[in-house]
Amino acid sequence: MAAPKKGRSASAQSRPGRSLALILIAIAALTGGMFASGNTTPRLGIDLAGGTSITLTAKNEPGQPNAINKTNMDTAVDIMNRRVNGLGVSEAEVQTQGSDNIIVNIPKGTNSQQARQQVGTTAKLYFRPVLTTDVSGAAASSSPSPSASSSPSGKAGDKATSSSSSSPTPSASATTQGRAVSDALKADSSPSASASTSASPSASASVDPATAKLQAQYEALDCTDKAVRAKAGSGAKPTEPTVACGQDKNSSGQWQKYILGPAEVAGTDIKKAGAVFDTQSGAGWKVTMDFTSGGSKKFASITGKLAQNQPPQNQFAIVLDGQVVSDPSVAQSLSGSAEISGSFTQTEAQDLANMLKYGALPLSFKESSVTTVTAALGGEQLHAGLIAGAIGLALVIIYLVIYYRGLSVIAIASLGVSAILTYVLMALLGPAIGFALNLPAVCGAIVAIGITADSFIVFFERIRDEIREGRTLRPAVERAWPRARRTILVSDFVSFLAAAVLFIVTVGKVQGFAFTLGLTTVLDVVVVFFFTKPLMTILARKKFFAEGHRWSGLDPKRLGAKPPLRRTRRASAPVDTKEA
User: Which of 188, 222, 254, 509 has the fewest CB atoms within 10 Å distance of its CB?
Assistant: First the structure.
């Protein structure tokens, strides 16, 4: 049995070159991938590269005095995080400050305007039936103009037609329009019947006060004013009718205003949203939406009702944060999915789809401040940190050279391989998972120097212990490795577990420290197994180390080695047979 065991051991010792070749090939492949991707430097965080810091303050909604609470603020932070990460922003920080503020830090190199829109837009989406619409600034008694005619673009206002009466008296026309709105809300008669109602004092008396108030708001609404557009219909509940303005001008360059019915479908009924280019019609970018099963039923119900009406009451308005994004007309009942088309650029369509996909914010926010953060302070701290790291590395190398002498070559080479792997992986992980190097991450990399050096020391001391027991170098290396391996694995497992727990329970920059510490701990295991041990096995065959040169670090005399375990037996003294 001893012979096969010896054969297996010899075979295992004769293949250290394979492990070295494997790790060198891996380094070459990763380095080549880094240069091929064009990302030859790690992505830097906001503290090192600079960026933009945005302070958002929550606003109380009418009728919801207690809406600003910890639950809603935490939900808003989570949604903002997912929205910004959906843009591929590296190391964007979103965190609460106080009871009603949220701080968003966006690193340099990111489209800050795009990110500001993502985090500041509430993205409350509703599908509301159109009761009446007109060009803002036109008299209510004016007849439909060609600028408000149907258009294939689907942009807000392009498919709207006026529902005003042809009566020349403005007051009578407003009354008739009010009756039409009132009839549409009550669903007591068709729009055509409502439109044919004659203008008279009795008709005016028949319009209920709520409808009259809504009509007055509509008549006074001037959508050419940006401030008015932003506040139109503010405070209206989803179950109430409201007035609204188009988000953009129609195809004729005019602003459209609306009276809209209660919301029939909400953004929470959307299961999936995406931005696609309309290749069939060539109309440009559009946003497609897939509804949940419940949302699909609601959408089929409302579109079935609208398809029976006359313009403009066969249209539904897609309302985003109080403004009409699109107002398509309906010819038949629809279900399952919908799309928002218009004069979208690719970025605008992707931004809208991103907001719809991750849901609406539970609160409305206003920008309190927008500050540009420079990298000057972070650069100084990084410079100081790198100097501290270089000093620490130099001290480690000096200690290794003085104490381990020739063995320090193996330790320094292993540290170099670990440094190369760490740098290359950081550069590749930037575009891959959004990893960004910040100051805590640099600290984690510096701490990793000690962890990696500790693994070498454990292995070298185990080898020295075997030599002190009287073994030669080659068997000492093979006997020391199993014991050192167990110690290294346990030590690295504890470090990795601590890094994983720290990464899970913390937020912000501390996660950078935890991630780097965990990454370098894993690399320590890889380097020790695939580089340090094979290299030690190869050098143990060299005369300089095998014979225990005084500068090899393995001199038996300096280590206080015992006499060899295998000694030659002395010849037995002759026995006097006569005495015996």
Answer: 188
Q: Summarize pLDDT for 397-428 with one digit per residue, the tens.
A: 898 899 888 899 999 999 999 999 999 999 99
Strand, coil or helix: 228 = helix
Question: Which one-letter amino acid corresponds to residue 552?
Answer: S
DSSP string covering 39-64, please? Answer: --SPPB-HHHH-EEEEEEEEEPBTTB
Cis peptide bond prior to 312, omega within 30° of 0: yes
Q: Which residues pair with 101 in a beta bridge?
A: 57, 97
**Which DSSP state fits 531?**
I
Highest mean pLDDT among 280-284, 329-333, 571-575: 329-333
Angle, CA of 53, 57 and 62, to the nearest 5°: 155
- Residue 153: pLDDT over 70: no
Rounded Cα distance between 241 and 237, Å, is 8
- Output Rg (C-alpha) for the chain, integer angstroms: 38
Are 545 and 405 spatial neighbours (Cβ–Cβ below 8 Å)? no
Query: What DSSP element (H or E) covers 277?
Result: strand 270-278
Strand order in the sheet with 337-344: 270-278, 284-291, 337-344
From CA 230, how far away is CA 177, in angstroms rounded? 25
Task: Supply the pTM of this predicted model.
Answer: 0.57
d(CA 251, CA 363): 33
Distance CA 223, CA 248 (A): 10
The total of other beta-carbon atoms located within 10 Å of residue 421's CB is 22
Q: Check: CB of residue 481 under 8 Å from CB of residue 533.
A: yes
Q: Whole-angstrom Cα distance, residue 183 to residue 504?
A: 57
Q: Other C-beta atoms within 10 Å of 339: how many? A: 16
Q: In 3D, which of 222, 128, 144, 224 has the Cα closest to residue 177?
A: 144
